[in-house]
Amino acid sequence: MLKFTIRRLLITFPQLVVLSVLVFIMGSLMPGDALSGLIDPNIPAEAIQARREALGLNNPWYIQYRDWVFAMFQGDFGTSIFHQRPVMDVIGDRLMNTVWLSLFSTVLIYLLGLPLGLVSGRYNDSLLDNAITGYTYLGFATPQFIFGLVILWVFGYNLGWFPTGGSVAPGVAPGSLDYVLSKINHLVLPSFAIALIGLVGTVQYLRSGIIETKQKDFIILARAKGVKESAVYNRHVFRNSILPIAAFFGYEVVALLGGSIFIEMIYSYPGMGRLFLDSISTRDFSVANVLILLYGFMAIVGALLSDIILSIVDPRIRIK
Amino acid sequence: MSENLIEVNNLTTSFKIGTKYFPAVDDVTFSIKPNEVLALVGESGSGKSATAFSLMGLHRKARIEGEVNFQGQNLLEQNEGKMNKIRGGDLAMIFQDPMTALNPLMKIKQQIVETLKIHNTKSKSDRDRYAVELLERVGIPRPDRVAEAYPHELSGGMRQRVVIAIAIANRPKLLIADEPTTALDVTIQAQILDLIRELQDDLNSGVLLITHDLGVVAEMADRVAVMYAGQIVEVAPVRELFKNPKHPYTRSLLNSLPSEDMLGKKLHVIQGVVPALNKMDRTGCRFAPRIPWISASAHEENPQLRKIADDHFVRCTCYKHFTLEDGSEPDVGVEEYQIETGVEGGSAR
């Protein structure tokens, strides 16, 4: 298991190299660079050219790539041309915000999704099941940005129960209890907006898993052993039904880390999704490249996480 | 004549198709004595397994009527809690397909211990030890290793031995074996049948053996009940049934067995299929549509099981007028069949 994990992590390295080259080439193929959007008629063209030369933007892409990689190995991820700060500083705060948001959303998704799926699958075709599946279809059909807006409008704007934007109230000292509470308060709306839509897949997977598992022979054998109905579900049906969910867990977490752009925009939540979008539209490639590498790394780790979880739950694919 | 272990009276199990209920088991009555093997034979869809599941109370969405008297109580009137004490305890079941009958995510030992825990109050170490003993009892080599294995690491025959170990874990008084060898290859079949007989002798328990394999019946059964379209059409001790079959269905079944003097010739086939539950004509003799050359007047209007000899019961009067389609008398010479397949087993009792 340990050997497998280490080997999988070592494979990520060439994958990241290929990814970084591709990203770099695609970045250079895009028209314009960080300076082309800032043209002020008062700045002489020679000054801009000099600036380009100084930043190395006139070099061919492979020279730029080499310089970038060398610098990275020395711990220098470059400077954001747009923010005029080191890339790591820019990403740092945003990364933590996004980690908290996806953590809250993930916990909510499984906390709400698993019981709903369990009830829905166990009592399939009952009134309750129809209500739950009805909700999941509605959830599949609702765009997240619409749902996010509605939640924001109702609970943030009209009822005023929760703040409508930001990640923390201004003027609260970092590290204090108030700061933590304020952070949590700011997380409630966006994480519910993500989770209430995001859980529909989990509910459907679990529901169909349970409906399929509960008619299997070993479930009948469990009943024939005299196992109580509640234990039949807890011990036999449930574990066999969460396999597809376990298989998707890693991907789900990664998708949340990278994919809450809409919600971050709507709630003006300073996370990575927004940073990524901004860095591309301002041609701030030093930030965009590092972010893409980070996403790539997380995707690989997520797949690994899924494999490890699955092998723990299912002995048939246990890694030796 | 000893006391009956289980008495099934007028058991009718109906399933809902569309909006109406249709009986898959129709007014079935039989009994089993301790240490007796009753074989329930018939084609697929004749209601054999539905009968077994009704006794075990394993039908979720069926309407079950009648009476199942087992150890002084009617099983059909017990609540879930009481049934859970009986199921896997005094009344246990062996399933048809060992490849799917074990939970793929649980160790063999856990699956055996689970039933021990429900029915005994023994300590954990006792249960663990007993689980390994059970595996040894059903002929599994290196039982301590197998106990720690998962089902996918075992072969089909081994898994069926585990399923049997689970069934006998609490020394059941009645063992229901639902086609225990159908999914196994022939050499393993013989081993499993030997094992079941051995255990039955040991535990002195009654067995309801469900099968469509007449070879298995000849080898294992004391008495045979032949089922067709949800009804029992003939009941007789095994020798009597093979030597002197009466009902056209029984005779057609025996006649379609391959035998040596049939070498190179076409086997007899019963024409048609068992009618679907909701398409069945429930008046008159249910086998009549499959022997259309027998005149309608030969059949009874409302066929009942009638005693024609000691312990030999037949439904409908049509047996008196039965011939094969070409007008010939069906062979009754299946005595040899019994000798061939070895009544050696019979001597074990």
Automatic annotation (TrEMBL), chain A:
<keyword id="KW-0813">Transport</keyword>
<keyword id="KW-0921">Nickel transport</keyword>
<keyword id="KW-0406">Ion transport</keyword>
<dbReference type="InterPro" id="IPR000515">
    <property type="entry name" value="MetI-like"/>
</dbReference>
<feature type="transmembrane region" description="Helical">
    <location>
        <begin position="99"/>
        <end position="120"/>
    </location>
</feature>
<keyword id="KW-0472">Membrane</keyword>
<keyword id="KW-1003">Cell membrane</keyword>
<dbReference type="InterPro" id="IPR035906">
    <property type="entry name" value="MetI-like_sf"/>
</dbReference>
<feature type="transmembrane region" description="Helical">
    <location>
        <begin position="9"/>
        <end position="30"/>
    </location>
</feature>
<dbReference type="GO" id="GO:0005886">
    <property type="term" value="C:plasma membrane"/>
</dbReference>
<dbReference type="Pfam" id="PF00528">
    <property type="entry name" value="BPD_transp_1"/>
</dbReference>
<keyword id="KW-0812">Transmembrane</keyword>
<comment type="similarity">
    <text>Belongs to the binding-protein-dependent transport system permease family.</text>
</comment>
<feature type="transmembrane region" description="Helical">
    <location>
        <begin position="287"/>
        <end position="313"/>
    </location>
</feature>
<protein>
    <submittedName>
        <fullName>ABC transporter permease subunit</fullName>
    </submittedName>
</protein>
<feature type="transmembrane region" description="Helical">
    <location>
        <begin position="187"/>
        <end position="206"/>
    </location>
</feature>
<dbReference type="Pfam" id="PF19300">
    <property type="entry name" value="BPD_transp_1_N"/>
</dbReference>
<feature type="transmembrane region" description="Helical">
    <location>
        <begin position="132"/>
        <end position="155"/>
    </location>
</feature>
<feature type="domain" description="ABC transmembrane type-1">
    <location>
        <begin position="95"/>
        <end position="306"/>
    </location>
</feature>
<feature type="transmembrane region" description="Helical">
    <location>
        <begin position="242"/>
        <end position="267"/>
    </location>
</feature>
<dbReference type="InterPro" id="IPR045621">
    <property type="entry name" value="BPD_transp_1_N"/>
</dbReference>
<dbReference type="GO" id="GO:0055085">
    <property type="term" value="P:transmembrane transport"/>
</dbReference>
TrEMBL record, chain B:
<dbReference type="InterPro" id="IPR003593">
    <property type="entry name" value="AAA+_ATPase"/>
</dbReference>
<keyword id="KW-0813">Transport</keyword>
<dbReference type="InterPro" id="IPR050388">
    <property type="entry name" value="ABC_Ni/Peptide_Import"/>
</dbReference>
<protein>
    <submittedName>
        <fullName>ATP-binding cassette domain-containing protein</fullName>
    </submittedName>
</protein>
<dbReference type="InterPro" id="IPR027417">
    <property type="entry name" value="P-loop_NTPase"/>
</dbReference>
<keyword id="KW-0472">Membrane</keyword>
<dbReference type="GO" id="GO:0005886">
    <property type="term" value="C:plasma membrane"/>
</dbReference>
<dbReference type="Pfam" id="PF08352">
    <property type="entry name" value="oligo_HPY"/>
</dbReference>
<dbReference type="GO" id="GO:0005524">
    <property type="term" value="F:ATP binding"/>
</dbReference>
<dbReference type="GO" id="GO:0015833">
    <property type="term" value="P:peptide transport"/>
</dbReference>
<feature type="domain" description="ABC transporter">
    <location>
        <begin position="6"/>
        <end position="254"/>
    </location>
</feature>
<keyword id="KW-0067">ATP-binding</keyword>
<dbReference type="Pfam" id="PF00005">
    <property type="entry name" value="ABC_tran"/>
</dbReference>
<keyword id="KW-0547">Nucleotide-binding</keyword>
<keyword id="KW-1003">Cell membrane</keyword>
<dbReference type="InterPro" id="IPR017871">
    <property type="entry name" value="ABC_transporter-like_CS"/>
</dbReference>
<dbReference type="GO" id="GO:0016887">
    <property type="term" value="F:ATP hydrolysis activity"/>
</dbReference>
<dbReference type="InterPro" id="IPR013563">
    <property type="entry name" value="Oligopep_ABC_C"/>
</dbReference>
<comment type="similarity">
    <text>Belongs to the ABC transporter superfamily.</text>
</comment>
<dbReference type="InterPro" id="IPR003439">
    <property type="entry name" value="ABC_transporter-like_ATP-bd"/>
</dbReference>
